[in-house]
Amino acid sequence: MALKMRYTGHPLLDAGVATLGAAAEVDNAGALTYDHIQKFIDDILLPTYINPIMSNYLGAVVYANVNFANPGMNSKPQFDAIRRNRLAAWFTLAFHADPTDREALLGLIDSLRQGKRSDWLLPADVEPPDENERCAFSGDLAVIRVSRIIIPMTGSDGAINFVPDGRPRLPLAGWVLIALLAMPMGTLNSAGQILLAHTMDTELLQRLSAYHLQENRAVIQMEDQNQDLKKRPNFRFARTQLMKALVDLNWRWAKTYPLTIYQFSSAAQSARVTMYNLESRVIRFITRAQREVPRAWDQVVARAWHLDAPPDVAPEINTKGEQIYERRNYFYEDLFDLPHNANLFLRRYLLRRPRPGKPSGKQKQDPRFDYSASRDKEMISWRLTELFMEVMMDINKERIQAIRDLGDRLADYIQRYDARLYQRLYVLRKPHALRRVLLQANNSAKSQGLGALLPYDEFMQVFFYEDGHIMREDWFLAQDLLMIRIIEQLTPEWVSANADLLDEAEESAPKTELEDV
Fold first, then answer.
1. pTM over 0.85
2. Hey, is 46 helix, strand or coil?
3. Can you give the residue range of the structural domain that contains 403?
4. 495 within a domain of the structure (yes/no)
């Protein structure tokens, strides 16, 4: 018998549906059956959620004050049976409630509240839906109305702010209730918050959920073997963790839907959410870079890890009974700031300009302070830069080619006739100064009978708007691109012979960020 399981575009529901599909190894959410769901509940969810490691997290972060994860009961084995029964009651409601039979629905809810109130399997602060009331998420007929005890990041039981019709609680369909309860098994803990990745690429979403489901099951198995483990592992840097998961999955996007990380907590006193977006064009850049220039990509990634980050293995359990994964990759994280931060990204990672200032404290482990165009010359790739310009910056191919040609001639001139020109170009930060240095080099080349170093049409295309009178506002971008091409074209022999000059250029460069231009 099939369920109504489907993807809706809502991150919480889709993560739950993907987790159920991953556990059942079913590619099509619509093919999930009651047997699949029951097996997931019996084999995975019930034993995992009753474990104190998971239940403490669920009650504090995911489902605020839910009855099966009461902090006063979680660590006391004598309450395990009642907590298990309370959790199972939610699924009894989801499986067996018939929203088309009002009398039967009310009878089922009443039956789950038999005996003393302290023994009720459904909490008092839920209520039946109105007759023929529709689920707030799916539009299907609802079976229950609930608050943040099941729906993270929503209002409390009595608050009416931002709630439809000025009523607390939201109506849920049965399958939506199941998906919301399954969701945590397909997500991770990041600094005391839920780490949930969402994309409309449902195949990728299910692969990510399977990856995280495996992590969560391994933790519970580890707890059985090591009693020192008291908390869920903490993956501190959410963006790094997601990119690492994509690398581990060896994912190649056939479609380029945006991907969003939600890092949030539903804790009653400190509910909060942070979102990070990986836009479609960024995904295209990542996919093509890994495929077309893998060596350059891998080098940039390798030199962006926090310097004292522990090896990529499970860390030791600390005195609080927690494993903290502190690996952080700045390149991975800065991908989420694209495309609006593209100029600085290019300057930092592709031109290898160091982060300005003198590092202090934890900043001393930030590798970007030690980036160097000369020392990192082998990492500078015009092909990777060209790809970045094409995908991320919408620079037309004619201008890219003009910059490349100009860079080639300047690199040849620098190596054969004027080594100091490299230094002058590297340290410039004013448009009129850049124009003067280039024109002087062009005149010098002509005086030596070398022909035009800076053809007029090319110079105009690189640095000026079409009318030829106004210098482009992104002149500094053209300068950076020229330097990338020049540096790539410098021979190892020339670099070795002029090491002092290159070091002097970097020492003389203004210690300011791009925004200060």
1. yes
2. helix
3. 397-516
4. yes
